[in-house]
Write the structure tokens for this entry.
Amino acid sequence: MTGKNVWIASLAAVVMIGIVVLLVGSPSVTANDQSSAANAEVKIDNFSFGPQTLTVPVGATVTWTNRDDIPHTSVSTDGLFKSKVMDTDEKFSYTFAKAGTYSYYCSIHPKMTGQVVVK
Amino acid sequence: MPDKKQDLIDQTLQDLNNDGVDRRGFLKCMAWAGTGLVWTMSGGIPMSRAFGKTADRSAAKSGDFSFVQISDSHIGFNKPANPDVTATLQTAINKINGMSHKPDFIIHTGDLSQLSKPGEFDTLDQALKGASAQQIYFVPGEHDMLNDNGEQYLQRYGKGTKGTGWYSFDHKDVHFVGLVNVANLKAGGMGSLGHEQLEWLEDDLKGRSASTPIVLFAHIPLWTIYPEWGWGTDDSEQALSYVKRFGSVTVLNGHIHQIMQKIEGKVSFHTAMSTAFPQPAPGTAPSAGPMKVPADQLQQVLGITDVNYVISGRSLAIVDSPLGA
């Protein structure tokens, strides 16, 4: 390897590190911003969503956690979001970017319904 | 002991006949039903018989036959209510294989798996291979159609069926219809058959003689047991309107993991025990779901359902047996 090539390789390494910092670093800043936007939780217990109506600010991420021994889902009635099946203690998150009232239900046990009000 | 059992059967049948079967009547019935109920249908009139007598084949005529219903195996479930559902399914199969009369086939009324995983279906298939009856008819439960709209279920168990897996077949003199009420469920609703399936059902039954015994089977009950827990089917009334003209209709369901029965005219409804875990009686717990019982009592609340068709009188006798009997 010549001296010039070593220099180019070093430069490339610095650039790559910079790219990595940009890729990893900036989103973590965004994530911190999101957590300050009042993220919220919905717990699934005894075949019901709690709280049944949740009010959050625009940009909040809502996380559903299934605490039953039976799988559940969280599916918005207008098709906006649809979780995978959550087995016991599994979670699903969705970030609400726009204000509105979002109704959802468990597609396996459709008697289970809830709503997220985004203000 | 047999006399006591017979008394209980007679007494409860009387209750059922007198009060049109309210929920309290069911609960009373359930307290002992798991110990071996014999339920004979003849033209819509329930008659009691001593346990075991229906298995007496000495008077059997050609055309008589039996089949077994099993339900809610939930292979893959491993929570405290039953950490080994494969073992209890195996016990159920051993029980079928040990029956004094060999059933012509088995009906599984759904929730074969807990999470629709290929490995869960594989385990079920492997266990069922050991059953004395090799013809097995399936309908899906909601646990069998997770994530993929039931594609995998249809590929494995629904070849040649219509829509999401419904079909019918004839066995000797009896017409059987397997229905799917766990697909495309609507927010806030219960089980659902849907327009396409109802149309198919009407067409399937059209032109059949009213004297043909009909057996409808589906996962979620086709009668409203407890709407608060979704234990019913929103459009089942329309389905039942198509069978009204038939002289003998038997409806077999699973989903609720306990025995419940109702007679309405010439239609008898029956739900089976699970082979995996029990669920609470309606309204006796904050919600439905796996109910933990002491380990030594588990086999009393799991079981199989033996259905005998006797050609003379065109009656169906339904016998529920717990695994631990």
User: Anything to note?
Assistant: Confidence is low (pLDDT under 50) at residues 17-36 of chain A. Helices of chain A lie at 3-35. Chain A touches chain B through 21 residues (CB under 8 Å). Chain A has one helix and eight strands.
